[in-house]
Batch of 2 targets.
Target 1
Amino acid sequence: MWLLAAASLLLAAVMASSRLRVLVLVRVLVRVRVRLQSLLRGTPSARTVHDFVFSNCKHGDVLSVLETFDLYAATRPSLSIGPHTGALLDQVVAQVLDQVVDPGRPLWALELGTHCGYSSVRLLRLLPPSGRLVTVELDPPTADLGEEVLLVSGFTHSQFQVLTCSSAEAISSMRSNLETQQDPSPGSTLETQQDPSPGFGLVLMDHDPDQYLPDLLALEGLDLLRPAGCSLLLVSRDQNPEGLQRVLDHIRGRADRYRVSRDLQGLVEVFYREGGP
Ligand SMILES: C[S@@+](CC[C@H](N)C(=O)[O-])C[C@H]1O[C@@H](n2cnc3c(N)ncnc32)[C@H](O)[C@@H]1O
């Protein structure tokens, strides 16, 4: 009798352990499938990129932050604009600052599509002390990660603001925000001096190409482009070239206010000025 009980117990233990092994194997296979799908789709999670940058860069060192992003992107798919388009962005921004910025006047920069903050860091490190960046990210967890990267890079909330909403929502509420924040009242996060020509002097679009045209029309309609001159930088990626084409068609049809200054691989620069570029 006791022999039968022991044999049943042994059999149950073997079955349980093989069931456990099967369960473990299934879990491993599911993880491998998710990882492979992510690699094949080229859509790495913002969390993975953020964690890599956060734990490998030197905190407070902007160059180290950018190099760590580039190191990640060298071997894994990444949504950041990367070092090639990044270098073009640097060149364009340096020239914009020469042409558009009046010394002593605030320069407002707008970025649509923060993701993990790579292009925000590139922009922020080039802005003059009077420069402020407003960056917009639709996905709340991603916006938090991007904001943390900006803080880890050493920037403060007096230099930037992350808006967590769609570009359309951000733009529609911006005119009143810009006016409020140009009032140098104590406690304002983006406090600036009064500017007789308010509006953004630099706009970087790297969010959803289908939104490029509606967002530009909204920026125009709400007088958010600096009338004295605004550089509009459009990131072009392989996906959805039609979205970029639509906004370029609009721009080319409005020669009275726009000029395509540069059409580089990965980045199109457009200059806007009220009354003619
Ligand atoms: C290509 S990534 C931006 C990469 C970033 N410029 C960089 O270099 O690190 C695009 C980001 O735009 C965000 N996005 C997409 N549509 C948006 C919208 N309508 N408004 C705001 N953000 C949007 C996505 O969630 C994503 O994080």
Target 2
Amino acid sequence: MAAWLESPDPLVVDLRKVTAADLAPLLEEETAAWRTALDWDFEPSADLVRRFVGMQALNGFALLDGTRTIGYSYYIREEKKGLIGDLYVQAPDRTPERENALMEATVEALWRSPGVHRVEAQLPMLESPLARKPPFASWFRSYPRRFLEAPAAQAFALAEREPEGIAISPWTEAKQDDSARLVAAAYRGHVDSEINDQYRSPSGARRFLSNIVQYPGCGTFFAPASYAASDAKGALCGISLTSLVAWDTGHITQICVAPSQRGKSVGYELLRRSMLALVAHGCRRVGLTVTSTNKGAIRLYQQMGFADRRDFAAYVWDSW
Ligand SMILES: CC(C)(COP(=O)(O)OP(=O)(O)OC[C@H]1O[C@@H](n2cnc3c(N)ncnc32)[C@H](O)[C@@H]1OP(=O)(O)O)[C@@H](O)C(=O)NCCC(=O)NCCS
């Protein structure tokens, strides 16, 4: 067909130009996509997007094809960092180029915000996440990540291990400050602190922890399956935090062990207890995400029955 007869490229516009009703079919499709791909109930996140778009209070962009809204993205600023909260183009219209158009507008808008030098994103529904050339390539790095999953009932097949001198107890919010210090120590020099700069300091880790306890991005925090490990002196040396991402699907939002206590089965036992509590709650499966180069953690998860469900990537743009 002659070029002049082809329909023009979809238009990227400010998210405030569309209504919650315009976005509704897109969010409905995205909710179904998360369910199919990951057994993840995206409805609480979709609901937040609808509400904030309804109030014209969400920063981001919409992709318009004529009168149809075929994609959207939104972003959040956290001090000197920008986060792409979501970016989705609906299935029949989805191409890496169209996703990139939204991505470029989003990263550019964040960079224009005073003081923002870094942008992070983890977007599991993105088309070919590993094989794409993203915008602003010279500031860009990507980290392959894996979504792993185990049947929750697998917990019954795992033998109990009792790490010597270690006590395991329920995690409570009173342990949040100690947990933040533990996260910062556990991820010092770790690839995951290149992906998420909140892991680099106790104050950043504190924000990370309050986000996973309070907001639905990683599912609904589930205290009954979250555990803490303490050493002989009572100091916190490991945590396994969980959420529910659907009524029958648990998720490990954080697991880490203090460097001095590694290799003693503390991680194994924390994860086993979390899985047991999730299956007791009625979960059929447990998921988690791990960076592909984190071979030690992957070995632990595989040993405990986790297998690959989906590949995705973490993206970082850093202009420093
Ligand atoms: C991953 C982590 C939680 C494991 O905790 P841990 O208490 O050291 O692990 P365990 O002692 O329970 O390990 C159990 C099994 O996992 C495997 N494993 C754990 N860490 C390993 C490593 N670094 N290298 C190779 N295998 C490892 C071993 O197969 C081990 O089996 P074995 O006891 O039969 O030898 C811990 O290393 C950690 O906190 N790492 C930094 C943070 C992190 O990467 N968290 C996971 C993010 S997804």
